[in-house]
């Protein structure tokens, strides 16, 4: 709905309007509509390809970080995950680019800062972003051919989907097991309790969506011909939507698309929108899921209530619903948080909570995890809604939400085009008009006007329309000790059923097929068909962003911030923290933004924060010195607001840092600890490889050892221990409250503070400078010394030169890491090691760990600043085999790799994708402040990377990897007879 006439406000927007007259035809595309969106300095152009009916949305904007995406509506026919397996197999080679995994190969022939493919509930899309025009054209060509002309060979299906194969491919006597990349990926997902809760929720309320990712139980039903069929039916231009964003002229894109679509006719769309279950009356669904090892037995319940609230096609009502969702549930002062979380009914919101509008209907869901009593939860939710209708919403809160939206609009983001794609695409595939989603100012203005005239009625009407006395979907999942065991048994049975049908002949086929697949995986391919940028496309000089020194401790960066000021502060803590208090630093920083002062509850402070600022945060960080490799331990805090409102940032900083009252709000502290405990497990499930890598690194680096206690395995153990003893008031006071009060003495001091200010004018910067001086005076004086010097922080012990640790965790899959020490950021060896890591990942480990080993991911990384060389695997069915592969890597490099100059250049290309990825304005020039890396160091390193030769790579392999003793860590369940043997230690969480 267009309520206001839109006028082009800038010269470039008027040009866009003129360039795309409505009704004109450009390369087979008819211009349907053009709309300027001055608030985002962009113009949107909507076109339709006449021959096929394919729609194109172009967002014309002066931004060099261009985006392309092709997407298809893919209603899943069943739960075999066919859309997801197709997403993977389209990337296994196409007619024009007949090489295995051209996407992956393009990663090191391109300077794209983002390349991916994603399966949504009823759509699949393939986006990338790059600042280089030649690159844009190369990648568009690969993407179009991959999606429209994939080879879809049977072996791609076996590799990416599922297959039966001997556990040891070459040994026909070894067991036959299920393998396949998507199969293992989804097994990994199922063991993530949050994912399982969410997918079972969706399966139950929205069965027609059929789990597009794939249910492992059903994946093994999928047949190869069904995959080919699914591609035929869905990956057709008539069923596609393409999207471009940025400053590359649309003309060349349309020309290319038209060439690609030329052989296709127009298909009638047979895609019904998929709908959820009919909610004629309340419906209830109950399941069992993974037990959370870090929560007590009486807190293993997740439960939610959901109402269906209209359709996203009504964009204004959907927007109102989201505002209502924020009013009800966002932050400590929201009524739902107070009555469900603060009251202890649940430990935290469940993952399906909030307003969801990514499908054909809107859901409003209120749910909690770590609950004990379902009926109490449901009664309370009902009461909340009846009470809400009796009590007016706080005007300030409505205003705060609008302020947040306005500020979010002004805040410059380096990946704005991608964000726009993500926000528009789900609706667009379900017939929501993307132009409506772009009319930000109108929507906001309309809300303001409606709120003026109707007041709270605006929200009450929604609640009455969709919630009060309306049918509700009641959903619960109870943690069960048997869950993993049952999954394993189900898999065993399913495998047996398949095996029982096999005769000797079939078994021979399976054996030969395994060997054949392995042979193909080992084949050295000719990649010359793939387009590529050249190493000379990388400039020898990197970006630098001049900064000003306003005073010895205040640095500023003046840039186009759209009227926003960002302020960051840090205080070095290297010699002030007593050894026994290190592990409590994270909780200390977290409690500052959770507890409140002696006169104010945190919810009041939070309200002011939302009303006047874009956000304020406090954290503890430990970084490594780029020259000496010694750790720097910092307390950091930051905030941002409109230039005119920076005084609020300092007011709130003062309240949080100086006035937080740990004793008075110790009940809030308990809530915080419980909520952290309730999210620990999913943190490990999502990034088990980071935990494994951090733990292994802590054997070699003081920074990583401190990191272990701040946010690694040791921190998880601490939170579990604390959350289990919260009922003992005396112990709680001494074990936690007293410690945080003591920490405050050491951390919050006026000495050694440094600031970095990003704003858009010198007067603004000077105003902040004055505010900083006043603020510093309000802090206590006299720095404390005599704590444990950070550099002396004890490393995790190595036993007899070998360390293998299994961190016992009830997943279906593992995460493995192997870590060795390297060189400092400024040492030339560091650059060589980084190139080596890239070469190993792309030219060796991807094949060994992912393609052959069946892990979802794996490779080597070099942490430049920490000076650590790490191998890792992600959702790995064979972690010990991966560790073996890692340990043989050095001899592979020296004896078998035979890498060429082209391989080397590709490795560098991959590194520079990240080095040269566009950054947001607020991040300009801040590297030195955050990591002590100067522009000169960055430039030197850039040259070292570009100048790295193959013999440099060999030399560092010999010097740092060959015959060295890595620290190994595996996160996941105990592997019988292996990880309990000598040479292994087991850590429990
Ligand atoms: Zn996947």
Automatic annotation (TrEMBL):
Keyword entries, A-Z: Hydrolase, Metal-binding, Metalloprotease, Mitochondrion, Protease, Transit peptide, Zinc
Gene Ontology cellular component terms for the protein in this record: mitochondrial intermembrane space; mitochondrial matrix
InterPro entries: Metalloenz_LuxS/M16, Pept_M16_N, Peptidase_M16_C, Peptidase_M16C_assoc, PreP_C
UniProt record, GO biological process: protein processing
UniProt-annotated location(s): Mitochondrion intermembrane space; Mitochondrion matrix
Zinc among keywords: yes
Domain Peptidase M16C associated: from-to ranges: 477-722
TM region positions: none
PANTHER family tied to this protein: PRESEQUENCE PROTEASE (PTHR43016), PRESEQUENCE PROTEASE, MITOCHONDRIAL (PTHR43016:SF13)
Quaternary structure and partners: Monomer and homodimer; homodimerization is induced by binding of the substrate.
Name of the featured protein: Presequence protease, mitochondrial
Origin organism lineage: Eukaryota, Fungi, Dikarya, Ascomycota, Saccharomycotina
């Amino acid at each position: 709905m267009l309520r206001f006439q839109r006028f082009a406000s800038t010269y470039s927007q008027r040009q866009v309007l003129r360039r795309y007259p409505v009704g004109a035809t450009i390369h087979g595309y008819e211009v349907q509509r053009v709309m300027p969106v001055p608030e985002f300095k962009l113009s949107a152009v909507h076109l339709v390809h006449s021959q096929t009916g394919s729609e194109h949305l172009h967002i014309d904007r002066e931004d060099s970080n261009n985006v392309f995406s092709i997407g298809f509506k893919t209603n899943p026919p069943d739960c075999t995950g066919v859309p997801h397996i197709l997403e993977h197999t389209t990337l296994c080679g196409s007619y024009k680019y007949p090489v295995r995994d051209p996407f992956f190969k393009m990663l090191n022939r391109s300077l794209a800062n983002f390349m991916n493919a994603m399966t949504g509930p009823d759509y699949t899309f393939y986006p990338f972003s790059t600042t280089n025009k030649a690159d844009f054209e190369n990648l568009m060509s690969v993407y179009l051919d991959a999606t429209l002309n994939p080879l879809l060979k049977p072996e791609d299906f076996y590799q990416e989907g599922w297959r039966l194969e001997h556990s040891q491919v070459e040994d026909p006597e070894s067991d036959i097991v299920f393998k396949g990349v998507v199969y293992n990926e989804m097994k990994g997902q199922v063991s993530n309790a949050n994912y399982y809760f969410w997918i079972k929720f969706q399966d139950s309320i929205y069965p027609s969506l059929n789990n597009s990712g794939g249910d492992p139980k059903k994946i093994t039903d999928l047949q190869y011909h069904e995959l080919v069929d699914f591609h035929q039916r869905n990956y057709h231009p008539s069923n596609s939507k393409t999207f471009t964003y940025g400053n590359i002229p649309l003309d060349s894109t349309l020309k290319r698309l038209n060439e690609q679509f030329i052989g296709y006719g127009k298909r009638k769309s047979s895609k019904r929108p998929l709908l959820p279950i009919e909610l004629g009356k309340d419906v209830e669904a109950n399941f069992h899921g993974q037990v959370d090892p870090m929560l007590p037995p009486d807190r293993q319940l997740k439960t939610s209530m959901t109402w269906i609230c209209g359709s996203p096609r009504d964009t204004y009502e959907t927007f109102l619903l989201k505002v209502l969702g924020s009013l009800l549930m966002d932050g400590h002062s929201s009524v739902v948080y107070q009555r469900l979380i603060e009251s202890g009914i649940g430990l935290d919101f469940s993952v399906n909570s909030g307003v969801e509008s990514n499908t054909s209907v809107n859901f409003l869901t209120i749910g909690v995890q770590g609950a004990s009593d379902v009926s109490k939860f449901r009664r309370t939710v009902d009461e909340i809604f009846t009470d809400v209708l009796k009590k007016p919403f706080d005007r300030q809160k409505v205003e705060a939400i609008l302020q947040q939206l306005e500020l979010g609009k002004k805040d410059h983001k380096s990946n704005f085009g991608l964000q726009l794609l993500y926000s528009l695409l789900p609706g667009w595939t379900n017939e929501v008009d993307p132009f409506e989603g772009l009319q930000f100012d109108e929507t906001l203005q309309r809300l303001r006007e409606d709120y003026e005239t109707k007041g709270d009625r605006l929200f009450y009407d929604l609640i009455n329309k969709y919630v009060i006395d309306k049918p509700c979907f009641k959903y619960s999942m109870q943690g069960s000790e048997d869950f993993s065991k049952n999954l394993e048994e189900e898999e065993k049975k399913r495998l047996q059923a398949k095996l029982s049908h096999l005769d000797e002949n079939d078994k021979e086929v399976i054996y030969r097929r395994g060997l054949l697949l392995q042979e193909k995986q080992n084949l050295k391919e000719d990649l010359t068909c793939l387009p590529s940028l050249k190493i000379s496309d990388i400039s020898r000089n990197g970006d630098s962003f001049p900064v000003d020194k306003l005073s010895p401790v205040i640095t500023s960066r003046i840039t186009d911030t759209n009227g926003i000021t960002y302020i960051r502060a840090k205080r070095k803590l290297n010699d002030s923290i007593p050894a026994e208090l290190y592990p409590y630093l994270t909780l200390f920083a977290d409690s500052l933004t959770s507890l409140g002062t002696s006169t104010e509850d945190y919810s009041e402070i939070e309200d002011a924060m939302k009303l006047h600022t874009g956000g304020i945060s406090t954290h503890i960080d430990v970084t490594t010195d780029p020259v000496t490799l010694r750790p720097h331990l910092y307390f950091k805090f930051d905030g941002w607001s409109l230039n005119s409102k920076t005084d609020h940032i300092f007011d709130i900083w003062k309240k949080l840092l100086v006035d937080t009252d740990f004793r008075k709000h110790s009940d809030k502290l308990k809530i915080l600890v419980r909520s952290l405990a309730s999210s620990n497990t999913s943190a490990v499930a999502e990034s088990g490889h980071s935990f494994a890598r951090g733990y292994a690194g802590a054997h070699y680096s003081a920074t990583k050892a401190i990191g272990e206690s701040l946010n690694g395995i040791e921190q998880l153990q601490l939170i579990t221990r604390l959350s289990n003893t919260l009922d003992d008031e005396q112990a709680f006071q001494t074990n936690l409250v007293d410690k945080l009060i003591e920490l405050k003495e050491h951390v919050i001091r006026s000495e050694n503070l440094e600031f970095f200010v990003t704003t858009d004018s010198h007067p603004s910067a000077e105003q902040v400078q004055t505010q900083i001086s006043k603020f510093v005076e309000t802090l206590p004086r006299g720095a404390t010394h005599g704590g444990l010097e950070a550099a002396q922080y004890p490393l995790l012990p190595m036993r007899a030169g070998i360390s293998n640790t299994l961190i016992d965790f009830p997943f279906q899959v593992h995460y493995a890491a192997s870590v060795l020490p390297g060189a400092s950021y400024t040492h030339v060896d560091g650059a060589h090691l980084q190139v080596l890591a890239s070469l190993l990942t792309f030219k060796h480990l991807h094949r060994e760990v992912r393609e052959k080993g069946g892990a979802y991911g794996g490779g080597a990384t070099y942490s430049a600043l920490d000076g650590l060389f790490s191998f890792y695997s992600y959702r790995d069915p064979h972690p010990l085999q991966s560790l073996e592969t890692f340990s043989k890597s050095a001899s592979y490099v020296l004896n078998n790799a035979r890498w060429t100059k082209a391989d080397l250049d590709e490795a560098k290309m991959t590194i520079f994708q990240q080095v040269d990825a566009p950054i947001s304005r607020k991040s300009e020039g801040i590297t030195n402040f955050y990591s002590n890396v100067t522009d000169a160091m960055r430039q030197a390193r850039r040259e070292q990377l570009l100048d790295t030769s193959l013999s440099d790579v060999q030399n560092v392999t010999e010097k740092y990897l060959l015959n060295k003793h890595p620290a190994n860590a595996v996160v996941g369940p105990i592997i019988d007879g292996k990880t309990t043997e000598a040479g292994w230690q087991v850590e429990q969480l």
